[in-house]
Amino acid sequence: MSSGLRRRLGLVGAGVAVLAASVLGAAGPASAHNYPVSSTPAENSTVTEQPGTVSLTTNDNLLSFGNGSAIEVSGPASDPRFYGDGCSRIVDATIETDAQLGQPGTYTVTWQVVSTDGHPVSGEYEFEWAPADGTELAEGSATAPMCATAEAEAPAAESGDGSDDSTTDAAATSASSLGDLLWIAGALAVVVLAVVVTLLVLRRRNPDAPSDAEAYEATAPKEDPGAR
């Protein structure tokens, strides 16, 4: 193999490696789990007026799979009760619920959402509730409220033949697997296309380049007929 051909192939290999790394690197974040970026009330903040709506916003849009998403408000820490009707809403990248708070103290917001990649993500954060004088306080409930709509739409936990209902889990797993396969297939397609295009460009730039055999024949020492 000629040194020029080795050099061209080396450049092709280096270019493909860089391109593949960039494509696969871009694919990684797209399949990562969602994570919180802001909340209302803000984490560790002190609230003096009824918030009305408690919400959590993530870095990407959320999926809605039946009862897979929820947000719950409880407090104060010294005598916790639950506030709101237990219903939650998904609005793009935000999950929210309506709630009026009760006695002053430390409150906890517990949440669970379904990421864009189909995986459930959950967590909690706290804030301080210090209502101003004259603020109307909610009574709350001793147990976590069940959203009337969610309860009506909730499927039976177990069917008549004893099998579990796992529609939500199956849908989330399917979405995750499909997303991963699409990213991998797309990355491989880009790499293959890059190899083909690069080789065509190199060939077009030097269409008359001799093959290795021709180059060897041209440079090999000639036999002297008189030496026989």
TrEMBL record:
The keyword Transmembrane helix belongs to this UniProt entry's keyword annotation: yes
Transmembrane portions of the chain: 181-202
Domain CopC: 33-128
GO biological process: copper ion transport; response to copper ion
Keyword set, alphabetical order: Copper, Membrane, Metal-binding, Signal, Transmembrane, Transmembrane helix
Biased composition (Polar residues): 36-51
Regions of compositional bias (Low complexity) in chain numbering: 142-160
Keyword Membrane on entry: yes
Signal peptide boundaries: 1-32
GO terms for MF: copper ion binding
Intracellular or extracellular location(s): Cell envelope
Region (Disordered): 32-51, 139-171, 208-228
Gene3D superfamilies documented for this protein: 2.60.40.1220
Entry GO terms, CC: cell envelope; periplasmic space; plasma membrane
Name used for this protein in its record: Copper resistance protein CopC
Originating species: Orlajensenia leifsoniae
